[in-house]
Amino acid sequence: MINRAANRQANKIFLRACIGTAIALPLLVALPHALSVYWQSVLVLFTINAVSLMGYRLITTMGGWSFAHISTAGLGAYTTAVLTTLETPWSFWATFFLGALIAGAFAMIIAYPVLRTRHYYFFLSTFAAGEALRQCYVQFSGITGGTYGISFIPRPEPILGMDFGNSTGFYYLALALAVVVGLLLYRFDLSRLGNTIKAVAANEELSESIGINTWALRTLPFVMGSVVAGFSGVLYANFNGLINPLDFSSVLMFKLVAAAIVGGVATFWGPLVGLLYLTALEEVFRDFTQWIPLLWGVSVLAVILLAEGGLEMVIIRLVRRARRWWGSPGDRPPGGARQRR
Amino acid sequence: MMLETSDLTVKYDLVSALSEVSLSAEERTITTIVGSNGAGKTTLLKTISGLIRPASGEIRFLGERIDAASPTDIVRMGISHVPEGRELFPRISVYDNLMVGAYLRKDRKAIRRDLDRIYQHFPILKDRRRQLARDLSGGEQQMLAFGRALMSDPKLLLLDEPSIGLAPVIEQRIMETLRVLTVDENVGVVLVEQNAALALSVASHGYVLEQGSLVLQGPANELIKDDNVRAAYLGL
Amino acid sequence: MQIVANIIFLSTFYVSFAVGLALVFGVMRTINFAHGEFYMFGGYALWMLINAFTGILPPGATFIVALIVGAAVVGILGILVQLSIFHRLREQPFSIFMATLGLSYVLQVAVVKAIGPMGQSVPAPFPGFILFEGMVLPIQRLVVFGFTVVMMGGLYLFLMHTDLGRAVRATAQNRTGAMLQGISMNHIALTTMFVGSALAAISGVLMGSVLIISPFMGGEALWRAFIIIIVGGIGSLSGAVVAAFLFGIIDTLMTTFGAGKFAPMVDAIIMLLVLSFLPSGLLGARE
Amino acid sequence: MAILEVDNVAKRFGKLAAVKGISFEIPEGQIRGLIGPNGSGKTTMFHLISGFLKPTSGDVRFQGHSIKGKRPHQIAKRGLVRTFQLTSIYREMTVRENVAMGHHVHAGRRGARSRPSLERLPQFGTVDESTEWILDFMALSDDAETTARLLPAGMQRVLSIATALAVRPTLLMLDEPLAGLNPTEKISVAQKIASLRDHGITILLVEHDVRSVLSVCELITVIDFGEKIAEGTADEVTSNPAVIEAYLGKPARHDA
To answer: What is the reported pTM?
Structure first.
């Protein structure tokens, strides 16, 4: 049977997103030209993190918060770093896909044990697995360069006349990836499969009883999200030119988690709003780098204790209120009674 | 009256689990509440012991209102609840389970004495005092749940389906002990049972609960002969 | 023989760190991520007191003062965390977990800013070595071992032989059952957080006397502790002790045979295998 | 032909024998009741058949094929679908979304997954039409856009049956579908169950409450202490002394 109405609805929303992207794209393309070199690199890193975070949000839709995401991204980074700095270097483009594939394979391997756990058990087991992977980066120094890491990672070779040597060119590469990954994941989120994954997270027993392979539908987003992390890792390594294990430390993992908490994960846009907030915070306090994890921690505490659901919920509520205000002042319930949540 | 509820109403979300239940229980007697699954018996006991807040109505114990009291205060006043499924502490010893029952008491000597009395009532618990609770048989676990409740030196004992999952011989023994307890230990008992014949044969007064409302009450020996009771269960 | 001594030192370290975490987890049904920072505070308590009391008190006495002061201060900190985070977010274990994750970075950075990111070490309060049967035994390590045993003994006595300890165990096993005996959940939560946090601090003081004290020492110990409590069985204290010894043996042997750098990977693989085949851990209770 | 054959199934939990070798068969098109007092093992039996628990010994055959050890979703795909004792719904979805989700195994393919058995439910080309039909059939159309958690308990129960129906089962197992409903709701749910049978669906109904199954079920299997103690029509079962004792219990002896 075809689920026509739901399909049509999803296509409509997706089309709107596509149009939105198409309108925003010229702006996004023009953006680096208005920025200094410093802000260009902030922009590139933001874009790479956004890609990683979109993958992370996909994982959370199956109900688990992984703490191995950044180490998994590291697999992509080390793949490209190692292979493009060989004596006969690989092409960046080959490592681009290989890195993502390896990240996905790692997720596939740890999926069997870690997906047996739920909630914070899942978090703890992925934390330990991710930390062990990071230790591999430190200890297998013959390949990874140990704590010093790998340097002189080349920028991607030009393709179709595009030069990725400068920040603007690299930004276009990151932007292209972000747009492609974003649209694909957004469509996936709206799709029947995406909804089924969320249904499994909401009620696993019931889902299994109506014929849903719950095990497969918990593994799929975990692996897909990790593949996306792999892509972001590859770009990070090539943009930065050097990587070491500290680039994949738990502090940076915490940044991703903080973005997801501060922004919220109920909508596709939540984590990106969170990332925008964290990046802004970081730049405002640029001269106090040591304080930044503290600011992340305070933001997380504040959101959990005071603004359940994150900034996305705050925005949604504000928009609703504004709509009611603009739409029909007469309809407002007396005393401004709160809308049912 | 030792315990009295008046117009007690309890709601889960929007649905009433109990509606306007008014009943009473006396000292040194067994009062039973029978009814089929889902009639609201367990909810009633949980409300009395403070685990659930009623939406409206009153509960009085020895003249004092307890419907807003915390479970701790209710235990301290002398109500002890042996819950459905017994809720023992599986991985600590029988002795420790019993002593947790006396958590709020500070009179060491009296605790010691009550412990000995419980060991007299249930010698098997004394034999197994060092074993973990989860290693006891079903009947022994029920005795332990009883014993633990008695360790708080209660004036009123609330029992939720003590016969569940037990073989008939053990059921009989449990009921026998219950009757002895009310006389010897001076406690009142509110007994909730699906096994109506068993409960009504030991109780002096009975209530029949259906869909959260009381539909019938009277002396137990009259209820047991009442065709409506049989019908309520078997549809005969 | 030296290996045996090393195994015992390492295992007791794992035990002293993991047991407080497992206790809090068992009763509160959620992880206190800031446990690592509480441990780090213990280390700094020792460092500060040794610095302050040099020449005033003998280092050995300062060590004991640090144990008491560290435990008390961090225990009170634990109570504050209970009141401000755990109690506010009760019924939402995952939110508590994330909030303490945030808190752990706040505390870590606070120490970095207040004291500096560099590691510090203190001179051993009980210096010297004992040569015994061909083993080199630093006295400080023996003292640490001795105090760990005392700490575990104290915890054992508290849990097994006091009314409050019994109530804590009962609550960990069955909340409803405990409430029906009149045990106040708030009371037990405060007790557990105090004891669990104090244990972290004691562990920190003990290990601070033999390891390097740094703002990041908690984070490093924490992930090992996660592996230990997952393998031991979540919420099981005896499981945590067994797993601590298991990893003490494995890690020591690997170090001895020159493969120490691979120990973290091996430990994590063991954890993943245990999760695959014994999802509730070695001694965990099946829910 | 028997659609379901339960062959000497037993289940132990550690030392405890929850089910001690139970056998029964359900012929196609029947409404069968499985009853027993609390703690008798009927819910365990239910889990054993639907794959949520694996039998320690014995075999379960569905349409002639063993389904022992199969995962629940595989069993559901074959057309053996169950509901849960506690109302199980997607609380945050609307009623319509719940029922649509029930179509999971059919969605995305042409027509419904074919069943090797009689299929008298109307055929639909789209999930939407099928959902519409089920909502109408189960009298849920008026609440189609309501968030499921806001429905009264009785309606939630109906919804969970509607969702199971969307899988297009040949054998539908209902775990206490009538418990906690008021008398009017009970009658209407019982009528729904009877009409499901008229659509060719075999039904196994687990109930604690004897009264409610008597009017609905053609044959009743009674278990107690993990063993089958009786099987027969409503009249046979209710006059069976073993059943009466299992339910009403024996009065306590006054000698002792």
So the answer is: 0.89
